[in-house]
Amino acid sequence: MKKTFYLILLFVVPIFMNGQATKLKLLGHWRDPELKGSAQYDNTFNEAYGFTVNNREYGIIGSTFGFHIIDITDPTNPFERYRIKGGESGTNVIHRDFRYYNCHIYAVCDEGTNSTLQIVDVSNLPDTAIVVYNKNDLFFRSHNIFIDEAKARLYTSDEKNASGFYPLGLYDIKNPSDPKFLGHYNVFGDITANDVHDCYVRNDTAYLNCGYNGFAIMNFADYLNPKPIFTLKPNEYLYSGYNHSGWLTPNGKTYVMADENHGSPLKVIDLSDFNNIKVVSYLSICGDSTKAIPHNPLISCNYAYVAYYYDGLQVYDISNPKDPKLKYYYPTSTEPNLLNFKGAWGTFPFMPSGNIIVADMQNGMFIVEGPEKVCFPNNICISTDSKNIEAASTIISPNPFINSLSIQSDRIIQDFIIANLQGEIVYRVNNIHSEKVDLQLNDLEAGLYILKGRCEDRSDFYHKLIKLNVR
Q1: What is the residue-wise DSSP string for 279-335?
Q2: pTM score, two decimals?
Q3: From CA 66, how far away is CA 422, in angstroms rounded?
Q4: How far is residue 418 CA from its own chain's centroid?
Q5: Contact 155, 146 (CB under 8 A)
Q6: Over the range 395-427, which residues count as b (16 or more CB within 10 Å of their CB) and which as e?
Q7: 130 pairs with which residues across the strands?
Q8: Which of 155, 163, 174, 428 has the highest count of CB atoms within 10 angstroms of its CB?
Q9: Ranges assigned E (strand) in 372-403
């Protein structure tokens, strides 16, 4: 491909941070000491994420076991609300990743052959989190994922399925619990990628971090024929290495990009003119930057929040992209920097409270007080996607029940599920098309269950069920 849209400023002098940054205030900390570290990196924990349901804030942290939903509404007293076992679970697990769409959490792992896409309905927290999808039929491993919420599309990075390896995958998630395959890709303009480690996507414009193949911006409006906008190869920018990940500012004019290499600064890219894209500054840490490893940068308002492995959380003011400043930090890691990979893996700076979640590979979840307001994405779950429709009126009888019960609704029932308190679906019925359903549930063990259903007008209903022992 002929390059029409790039200009690289090789004469830019790197901006390394000096002066004093302010240490953020620790509010709370969660860690389960019984969980085991990975065999390769001794990382018990991995990625951080967050969301809000019914006016309560929750953090997510991945582990070798699976992932943990931590109630951080009171950040001084975080506690585990739910834990979901991963499709792959054990000390071989290193990587997990999470994204949110329409009251559902999407989780993936990049180890093992049993790893799987898991989708969890969190709309009824704190009562329950229900695993509504847990299959290998689309793919069994993915290193990272990203969701373009405006387009209801899920992107997979470095996906593996029964047919092979694919640098980038694309799925339709208009029905959040039933993803549909759209395509696989590895050619982005004049880059043929062996790897897409991570991506950021907004309104079909995808910013692709292609490992040792460089960086690309693509338009996926026509997913059958995506169009290249810009490419940047490793020999075309300073301090290039393993092009790992990046994040876009809310105004879409600046992109902060990390090459995951010891001593490599982050790159601040000016996107205000797609005909003249350029690197305008570089970010590093105070102290010994030759050992520092930038990992996952995220941007909220005018701040870039970076999980910096051994150097913990680093927060940069990028309101002037040409003159960024290191403003805040929080040291999560207690490990000596031996040029390996330990410490702060991920961060999530988008909670409505302004509090920041940081996941440390060895030390678990930290909740720290944020510096200012946040520009958070739409990860606040008010209800399901039927939130503008009045909930259906339903009667469950009897409840408690022994073996049989009836569901009577004032609407036409479409489908429903019954889940246990671990979030596992134990009973499902689809395509009902009736106002009344009679059930025989002899095989269920005595205990507490959650019934969640949907009517044909897209209204929802929700009940707690009590199953008694047979008399």
Answers
A1: EEEEE--SS-TTS-----EEEETTEEEEE-BTT-EEEEE-SSTTS-EEEEEE----S
A2: 0.83
A3: 13
A4: 26
A5: yes
A6: ebeeeebeeebebebebebbebbbbbeebebee
A7: 121
A8: 155
A9: 380-381, 394-397
